[in-house]
Design brief:
The protein has 678 residues and is of the alpha/beta class. It is built from 17 helices and 19 strands. Strands 1-2-3-5-4-6-7-8-9-10 form a ten-stranded mixed β-sheet, with helices on both faces. Strand 11 and strand 12 form a beta hairpin.
């Protein structure tokens, strides 16, 4: 019986053991260590933040405890994407540092494309530091923060808010506010692609300003420098030589100024050569389709070595200041200008709605009229063009500028032609066509005014109102730059063949070569020296800056009077230089009629001064103020049948501001006759 009773007992024990084994096999492995082939150990952890539970991964060398610790804070973009900086974490762990990666906030936790809080992100970073300090892999007194790009603002703020971080490391950080940093990136990327300077602000800045004005730009207004000034603990700022996302030169300068002024005794500002914003080796910072952000710089003395050696130095008690030379930065970085009331996002959206209403009223009215089977409304090619282009142009402008912003200025959708991305060039051409069609419509409406019914007049009035609003709107957004440039060019051509304000006929004369000019005889009845574009004001080229000179107008004399010579000048014949002289101004013939004898013949005239055909370096005057002196005589005394008055120029008094040193050149000044009414 005993044996019969013992058999079931043994069977039950074996069954229980088998079930326990199955349960253990079925359970997932505990969140302990999972050894990697490269000798690193990863441990999954979770910890509590200010308002959420955060997941993280600790990566450390196998079998080592009490190491310096580093919490990696990621750059811009919603979370979690914990493994985005895994390559950095593994490289630092292999260098003997315990590293913590953690989940960043997502859209459901307050971080999106339009909203975020540096304070919330800083609180998460502080909680991560506390979590790593509690791990055996890290020395609780040597856990610091490492923030990349946007994370640089976060770690500086976190260290200013908490004493838990023992040190702070930033890489690719900006010392400017977020909106100014984004604007700099946009403009720099556009400039590198060949976009003309006048378009950098409309395409790169203004939409950012509009979003900032209405509180739609993430982290706008945050200034990292006050928090940096409070940072009285070891600080390392790492900058990429070819950073195209944040301004490395200006950021290094501002970091140094702030840390020095605050009296921080232990900081280093280092520039890593040959890397881009992601700390990946690069020749110029551009990131093509084959760019691999995980291929970080592991070269001796490169990014990883710079950070690891500095952290080990802090652990060893090193104290000191080290600042690398400022890297090159082609485009300056400044604060973003505040958007005017008509440049805000609300106004932009309101304008888009208004344009839709005004330009859309034309086809809608025609459609309603047709549905009611009434007679057709007055129309023309100009009215149709204004309506269609006016409807399409504003939203296309907004969409393109938004695309440039979303791509950080790196995608312009096509080639750059004449300093303009192809889509923007087409939009500018459409804007010019719209203005021309509007002028034609005004003429057509005026000619047809007698037969226009009330409905047609209302339609045309809506189109004209839309044009009146669209023209200044387009000018603000840089849409009329092409039309302005074309108008200036046409005006310049017309000016070259027209008449001056004073009645002196303008004519263009080809500049004489130097050899030909030197061989010309000096006769009183001929023009000598380089030919000038305008006979009204002779061409002058000066040497120093900010000095006054009076030049003789003798037909045969080509020497400066002593009073006119620059300091150190010996006078003598002046060198022959082939130039094309731009018009400075004309003589006021009305003033000439009122003067007699040796008097001022004209008002003070201003211009840009000479324009040189060969454009020798440093010879372009900045500003020219001139006054003509001479005498007036009545031609009735000289010849029968003469009319009006003539003025003969004797002297030209000029106040000149010159860009750089240049030799003094004076044209042979003949008597310049100006007949009233000519």
């Amino acid at each position: 019986m005993a044996s019969l009773r013992s058999a079931p007992t043994r069977f039950g024990v074996l069954t229980a053991a088998a079930l326990a084994a199955l349960v253990l096999i079925a359970q997932p492995p505990p969140p302990a260590a999972a050894q990697e082939a490269n000798g690193l150990v990863e441990t999954e952890i979770s910890f509590s933040g200010a308002d959420r539970t955060i997941g993280g991964t600790v990566i450390a060398p196998e079998g080592e405890d009490g190491l310096p610790g580093l919490v990696l804070v990621s750059g811009s973009g919603p979370g979690p994407e914990r493994d985005r900086y895994r390559a950095h974490a593994e490289a630092f762990a292999e260098a003997g540092i315990a590293v913590l990666l953690y989940d960043k906030r997502g859209a459901d936790e307050g971080y999106s494309l339009t909203s975020a809080s540096i304070e919330d992100l800083a609180d998460d970073a502080i909680a991560a530091v506390e979590a790593l300090r509690a791990r055996p892999e890290a020395d609780a007194d040597l856990v610091g923060l490492h923030g990349h790009s946007e994370g640089a603002w976060v770690v500086i703020e976190a260290a200013a808010r908490s004493a838990a971080p023992a040190f702070v490391v930033t890489s690719g950080g900006s010392a400017l506010p977020p909106e100014a940093t984004q604007a700099w990136m946009n403009r720099d990327q556009l400039r590198r692609q060949g976009v003309a300077d006048p378009l950098l602000e409309p395409l790169g800045d203004k939409l950012i300003g509009a979003l900032v004005a209405d509180g739609l730009f993430r982290l706008a207004g945050y200034d990292p420098l006050p928090a940096l000034a409070e940072l009285q603990r070891p600080f390392l700022g790492v900058f990429a030589e070819h950073d195209l996302n944040t301004p490395p030169a200006r950021s290094l300068e501002l970091y140094e100024e702030t840390l020095r002024a605050s009296g921080n005794p232990n900081y280093s500002l280092r520039v890593v050569p040959g890397v881009d914003h992601e700390m990946v080796p690069s020749e110029d910072g551009t990131q093509g389709a084959d760019h691999d952000r995980t291929a970080i710089d592991l070269s001796p003395g490169g990014y990883v070595d710079t950070v690891a050696e500095w952290v080990r130095g802090i652990a060893a008690g090193a104290v000191g200041i080290e600042v690398d030379p400022v890297p090159e930065q082609a485009l300056g970085a400044t604060a973003l200008s505040e958007a005017p009331w008509f440049g805000t996002a609300e106004t932009l959206l309101a304008a888009l709605g208004l344009f839709t209403l005004l330009f859309g009223a034309y086809p809608v009215a025609a459609l309603v009229r047709r549905l009611r089977r009434r007679g057709p409304l007055e129309a023309s090619w100009a009215s149709r063009t204004v309506s269609v282009v006016g409807l399409l142009l504003p939203p296309l402008v907004f969409l393109y500028v938004a695309w440039v912003l979303m791509s950080g200025g790196m995608e312009v959708l096509g080639p750059v032609i004449a300093g303009r991305p192809l889509p923007w060039l087409l939009l500018e051409v459409a804007a010019v066509a719209l203005v021309v069609s509007g002028l034609a419509l005004a003429v057509q409406a005026w000619r047809r005014r007698a037969r226009l019914d009330r409905a047609s007049r209302l339609r045309f009035a809506a189109l004209f109102t839309g044009l009146v609003v669209l023209i200044p709107w387009g000018a603000y957004w840089g849409l009329l730059a092409l039309g302005i440039s074309a108008g200036a060019a046409l005006t310049g051509r017309a000016r070259g063949t027209g008449r001056s304000k004073g009645g002196c006929r303008r004519r263009r004369v080809r500049a004489a070569p130097r050899a030909e000019a030197a061989e010309q005889p000096r006769k009183g009845s001929e023009r000598h020296g380089p030919a000038v574009a305008s006979p009204c004001i002779p061409g002058l080229l000066w040497k120093r800056s900010n000095w006054r000179a009076t030049y003789s107008v003798s037909r045969t004399k080509r020497r400066l009077s002593p009073a006119a010579r620059p300091r150190g000048s010996s006078g003598g014949d002046l060198p022959e230089v082939a130039v094309r002289v731009g018009e400075v101004g004309g003589v006021d013939s009305a003033a000439a009629r009122r003067c007699g004898g040796r008097q001022d013949l004209g008002r003070l005239v201003r211009g840009r001064g000479p324009v040189f055909e060969d454009e020798p370096a440093g010879l372009l005057p900045r500003r020219v103020h001139a006054r003509v002196l001479g005498e007036v005589r009545d031609p009735h005394e000289a010849e029968p049948g003469g009319a009006g008055h003539e003025c003969e120029v004797h002297e030209l008094v000029a106040v000149v501001t010159v860009h750089d040193k240049a030799e003094l050149l004076v044209e042979r000044l003949g008597g310049l006759g100006i007949r009233d009414g000519e």
